[in-house]
Amino acid sequence: MKKKLLGVVLAVTMVVSLGACGKSNTETPATEPEVKEEAAEQESESTPKASSDKEIVIGVCIKTLSDEFPRQIADAIENAAAGMDNVKVEINDAQADVATQLEQVENLIAKGVDAIILNPQEADGLNTAVEACVAAGIPVIECNTMTSNEDYNCYVGSSDVVSGRMQGEFIKEAIGGKGQIAIMEGVMGQTGQINRLKGVYESLVDVCPDVEVVAEQTANWQRDEAMALAENWIVTYPELKAIMCQNDDMALGALEAVKNAGKQDSILVVGVDAITEAVEAVQSGELACTVFQDAVGQGEGALNAAIAIVNGETVEKTIDIPFVLVTKENAADYL
By C-alpha distance, which of 136, 146, 140 is closest to 24? Predict the structure, then answer.
């Protein structure tokens, strides 16, 4: 199954690098490496281990555990740590609140944790959290979403611009490069919202003069908000051809509204993340496509990077986990 394959690929590529950490362009996906037969052996050799005489304590600050994808990241970190000697993780749920997440980071610094994995709620709002970690000499590893402050030690995640491009290219072909579309965004100011939107514009809106964006609004990654918003759009824009959602929870909410309106044959809905329910909807032909984002790979990669840094090793500034377009043709590979 490709989900498991990407986990192995991450272990092969996560890599403790010989050079110093340098900045990397996270908008360009890394080339997916070849997987060799010796991958299992390489994984055990390259996965960082805690020192046998010291417990490593890593604080984990997740933007919200109420959304499925960040919850999967947290689960991946916790499960990976459970299989390691002398590694302890402390999971914190910010409940989608910047002030709460800042306080959680401050508390972890006060406890003297060895490293912090940060899944920031906002790109700008968590800059001071990075500053505080740097001042305290505590490594900070950002996962899935990023801060504007690039003083973090390492970022583990996928290029959100690429996922937006994948959606845009799919819809461009599906609607023949013309027609009305609506874009449903995540929480404003998060890097996922900013860069996925950028990718859609680069691949679709800016290159197709006959494509009209009739609505562009946030549903805050939430399914219920997305359903209500889509219901309004369907009535307001009877010629709507596609609803482009920046995550699968919103896509599933929008899809429910489309189905209730009897518009399945005229309005395409797309998402990002490839959560199980969304992939099943793609396989059945209800959801047009989603984009696979490897939560397990990102969570395990962030934990491994944190351990490596604590152990005095040098890691890449950016560890890219590639996105993959999921359509009806390959959906079975992601279940």
Answer: 146
Give me the residue spans of the domains in the chain: 2-24+55-157+295-320, 160-292
Per-residue pLDDT of the chain (335 residues; tens, 9 = 90+): 434 334 433 333 333 333 333 333 333 333 333 333 333 344 434 445 444 468 999 999 999 999 889 999 999 999 999 999 999 999 999 999 999 999 999 999 999 999 999 999 999 999 999 999 999 999 999 999 999 999 999 999 999 999 999 999 999 999 999 999 999 999 999 999 999 999 999 999 999 999 999 999 999 999 999 999 999 999 999 999 999 999 999 999 999 999 999 999 999 999 999 999 999 999 999 999 999 999 999 999 999 999 999 999 999 999 999 999 999 999 999 99
Strands ordered across the beta sheet of 179-185: 211-218, 179-185, 240-245, 268-270
Q: Count other C-beta atoms under 10 Å from residue 141's C-beta.
A: 28
Strand, coil or helix: 274: coil
On whether the 2-24+55-157+295-320 domain is CATH 3.90.1150.10, my answer is no
Q: Are 252 and 277 in contact (CB under 8 A)?
A: yes
